[in-house]
Write a structure and sequence with these properties.
- This protein is an alpha/beta fold and 386 residues long.
- The chain folds into two domains: 124 residues, Aspartate Aminotransferase, domain 1 (Alpha-Beta Complex); 254 residues, Type I PLP-dependent aspartate aminotransferase-like (Major domain) (Aspartate Aminotransferase, domain 2).
- Helices cover 41% and strands 15% of the residues.
- The protein has a seven-stranded mixed sheet, sandwiched between helices.
- Helix 1 runs antiparallel to helix 9, helix 10 runs parallel beside helix 13 and helix 11 crosses helix 13.
- The longest helix is centred in the first third of the chain and has 21 residues.
- It is globular, with a radius of gyration of 21 Å.
- The structure holds pyridoxal-5'-phosphate.
């Protein structure tokens, strides 16, 4: 049985061969710590890290490469923003489509630091009116955090419009681009945000264990580090350096991950972002069209392929979504994710809490033929369970 991987919103698989090769080459041909030695291998490691920072700065339109720091994941990046910035009395706005990577650290901060968290209610298809943000702003609103797209329904949120609104205020702005980097336009300067949190292993096609954060100049000064330690710079000083990127990059870095991430981003730039988006849009449109011919299936989120990523959530009449996911894999080799997808708020918004949905998410290697096979598999399962 052939395998069809339809869980790219979780992580991209397979990785492009260039990514695997870059990691092997890094470990084999460089393999040493950047910024920790004057010998050739250490210098080459530092060069690779710098070049990746510059590549990402170009990719996300960030003014200086140093404004990008590497972290283990977008979860870490978001924790750094929230825990490094917020203090007692602060008011924070989030959307009702956020991932637990935002919701859980905020729940802890609300309990321990007394910050106030307010959720902007999105519509049942996950869409949000940007004016709701303006209306919800208070004198003490320190931060707005929005996901660029929902990891449950794929619905794209109006993050550029919100950036326009917040640019006229003192409120800081954080955008979580876990689901869009590598497919949608993600432009740090056009977003007018202070924090852009990204992960390397999804649309950017890199390996797990590498992510990052882009910071504005004002964010650098007001955000405390979460972890302090060796940076390879100013070693005589017991205090953490306060300049970028060292303020937020202590300890040995995931250099093989950085090398793999660089290769993933190069695959995207060589293919062209527009072409990547078009390929995923076509798969999404074909899938939505196929689903519309299956009345036993309920599709959540927006049905417009231009307003969503290639992530589609469904439920089938009379079958638990966990069982359906199991049947698709056992019977047809189709890999999907069922349940709440670490985003219970989003499920409350779309009306699928606590049972969740079955999620399909397409990526760079999926084809129109695979989409058709998935529709056919669903058709057969519906017939068998009539
Ligand atoms: C919107 C969103 N934010 C955050 C995360 C967390 O990503 P990671 O596990 O790479 O930290 C995910 C992953 O599913 C996500 O979809």
């Amino acid at each position: 049985m052939n395998e069809i991987y339809a869980d790219h919103a979780a992580t991209s698989y397979p990785r492009p061969p260039q990514v695997v090769q870059a990691m092997i080459e890094y470990l084999r041909d460089i393999g040493c710590n950047p910024g920790r030695g004057g010998y050739r291998r250490s210098i080459n490691a530092a060069r690779m890290v710098y070049e990746t920072r510059a590549l990402l700065a170009d990719f996300f339109h960030v003014p200086q490469p140093e404004q990008i720091i590497f972290t283990p994941s977008v979860t870490y990046s978001l924790n750094l923003v929230l825990k490094g910035l917020l203090a007692a009395g602060d008011h924070v706005l989030i959307s009702s489509m956020e991932h637990n990577a935002v919701v859980r650290p905020l729940a802890r901060l609300a309990a321990e630091r007394g910050i106030e968290v307010e959720r902007i209610p999105c519509n049942a298809d996950g869409t949000m009116n940007p004016l709701q943000v303006r209306q919800a702003l208070k004198r003490n609103t320190r931060l707005v955090v929005l996901t660029h797209a929902s990891n449950v329904t794929g619905t794209i949120l109006p993050v550029y419009e919100v950036g326009e609104i917040l640019a006229k205020t003192d409120t800081l702005y954080c955008v979580d681009v876990a689901q869009t980097a590598g497919t949608e336009k993600v432009d740090f300067q056009d977003l007018q945000c202070d924090y852009l949190a990204f992960t390397g292993h999804k649309g950017l096609l890199g390996p797990p264990g590498i992510g990052g954060l882009c910071l504005s100049e004002r964010a650098l000064y007001v955000t405390q580090s979460l972890v302090e330690g060796g940076t390879g710079s100013r070693s005589e000083d017991e205090n953490q350096p306060q300049f970028l990127p060292d303020k937020f990059e202590s300890g040995t870095q995931n250099t093989p991950g950085i090398a793999g991430l660089a290769a993933g981003v190069k695959v995207i730039t060589q293919t062209g972002l527009a072409a990547v988006k078009e390929q995923k849009r076509n798969l999404t449109a074909a899938f939505l069209a196929g689903l519309s011919g299956l009345p036993a299936i309920r599709v959540y989120g927006t049905k417009d392929p231009d307003l969503t990523t290639a992530t589609i959530s469904i439920n089938m009449d009379g079958i638990d979504n966990g069982d359906l996911s199991f049947m698709l894999e056992q019977g047809y080799g189709i890999m999907t994710r069922s349940g709440l997808h670490c985003a219970p708020l989003a499920h409350q918004t779309i009306g699928t809490f606590p049972f969740g949905t079955l999620r399909f998410s397409f990526g760079w290697e999926n084809t129109a033929a695979e989409v058709e096979m998935i529709i056919q598999a669903l058709r057969e399962i519906i017939k068998e369970h009539k």
